[in-house]
Amino acid sequence: MTEPEVEKKPARVVVADDQTVVREGIVMLLGLLPGVEVIGAAGDGEEAVRLVGELAPDVVLMDLRMPRCDGVEATRRIREQYPGTQVVVLTTYADDESLFPALRAGARGYLTKDAGGEEIVRAVESVLSGEAGLSPSVQRRLLERLSQAEPQSAAVMPTPPVPPDALTVRETEVLVLIAEGLSNQEIAHRLHVSNATVKTHINNLFAKTGLKDRAQAVRYAYAKGLVRPPG
């Protein structure tokens, strides 16, 4: 007799946006979707930090350009003071001046406001499972920026790549596919293994290298010369 499945609890989310119409629209949209429970809404970064301290949400959906305390500073404070709460940026801006400061401040996800409700939920689930919740366009921009920043190390790639930091050959293959932007499911299909096996390889390579998320893994792969720049 099989044991009954334990119902997955919805992710508890705080929405932070200084535009009332946008904030209320996001709250309403997420309220229609399974897997997410909105437990609070903030009109600026100061209020967002305060609500995190009071409510201990799983995730904050964070706008960047807000009064009193902007999204980057609020993200930094939340990640320092309340490390159990993850931050997914949800903003109009996808330029480098917005993207990279937010990631450096500790955001684990980055979406633009044209994202649909299901994409937002996927990003929330991704960051809670230890992955980066980056939209495809943001991930491409990150790869382009890294390829520009690491032209020498990326220009020469041994074939096959030599595993660094005691990684196995298979772990190195998984790392390279992460850097190419593949999801866990796509990696499993490419390597003809299960999703669980891919997660095990990712956990192992993160433990060996000290990496915390996929964005760091992309930077690491370029720094080690494991991947070539696009084109």
Q: Your description of this structure?
A:
Residues 160-225 form the HTH luxR-type domain. GO terms for molecular function: DNA binding. One of its GO terms (biological process) is regulation of DNA-templated transcription. With 231 residues, this protein is of the alpha/beta class. The chain has two domains: 11-144, Response regulator (Rossmann fold, 3-Layer(aba) Sandwich); 169-224, Orthogonal Bundle (Arc Repressor Mutant, subunit A), CATH 1.10.10. It is 52% helix and 13% strand. It is built from eleven helices and six strands. It has helices at 20-31, 45-55, 71-81, 96-105, 117-128, 136-149, 151-155, 169-179, 184-191, 195-209, 214-223, and strands at residues 11-16, 36-42, 59-62, 86-91, 109-112, 133-134. A six-stranded parallel β-sheet has the order 2-1-3-4-5-6, sandwiched between helices. The longest helix is centred in the C-terminal third of the chain and has 15 residues, at 195-209. It is globular, with a radius of gyration of 19 Å. The N and C termini lie far apart (54 Å). The model is unreliable at 150-160 (pLDDT under 50).
